[in-house]
Predict the structure.
Amino acid sequence: MMAGIILVCSVVLFLQFFVFYCRSLIAVSAKQALSPEVQEVTGIQKTASGDDFQRVMQLLHLCPERREDRSGIQAIGVYFSLLNFLRATVARLVPSMHSWTESERGQCTYFAAVALERRISFSRDMLAQQMDA
Amino acid sequence: MILELLSGISRFYVLHSFGFESREYAYFYYYSEALTTIGLYFALSSLYAHVLEELKVESYVRMAAVLLLAGTAVFSYLIVRQSAHLMSTKFVVEMSQNLYFVGLVLTYVLWGAILKLRETRTRLIQFVLSLGVLFSLFAANYAMRNLYPDLRWLWSSLPQLFDCFLPLAWCYTFLRIPEEARITPARLAVAPR
């Protein structure tokens, strides 16, 4: 009985903390502007669509991985899957939930595009260092 | 974070030397976990001191943290005192289990304080939220272990994965988020209407 109550509390609090944590990651990246070339590559101008997330993630995986980015990208990947689940279930019944999940999915794509921008500039710096050497 | 990292490396060393099924690894795992949990608990109390620094209640926070830790230790002892066999090990496991739940509740209260006091430091907010994720994962894992003891192999393997989360998340925060970065925490908690 006690273990059951602890489990329910932990799962509910985990979901809250996880969603807030992901949204804090997204909020930080939302303040960063994308360079024209990343806008061109990803097709994102001002607002991003959740439907582009997988494509941007594929582009992201083509760049050399950076260890410090890994946890954020993985967390947002899980958050995106959670949003897809909500979109396919609860959001079908609640219209306001549908628009919210759409906007959150778009912001996940923007987060991935900002991560892509960082990886591209990191790869460019590495190449420049090699050229100098 | 350093304690988490050291405990992870030393656990890996013991695992590599004695194997997953060995008693040495089991003992080492539970004792190092108890130490790490106490470390995380004090990290949480220092986050409290940061959030409440304007109220000048640092000494009260420290005292309350020590009292609560002692209370948790006494409560854990009362639960395991009847078992004469392996009492210290059972005490350590029980203490970690209870501390994770106490840590989870305290993190939730701290998150409430952050919202109420309109704390905007991004780094601090991310430290608190990631700590909340870790405490809730461990508390849920212990609860599942008590509910489904037959799947012990699963509940003993998952913590190794959970342990990776906090160092990575805090590394990300230290390296990616500038100290002067600010966000509005109330916006993170906006629910769809």
In short: DSSP finds seven helices and no strands in chain B. The longest helix of chain B spans residues 87-117.
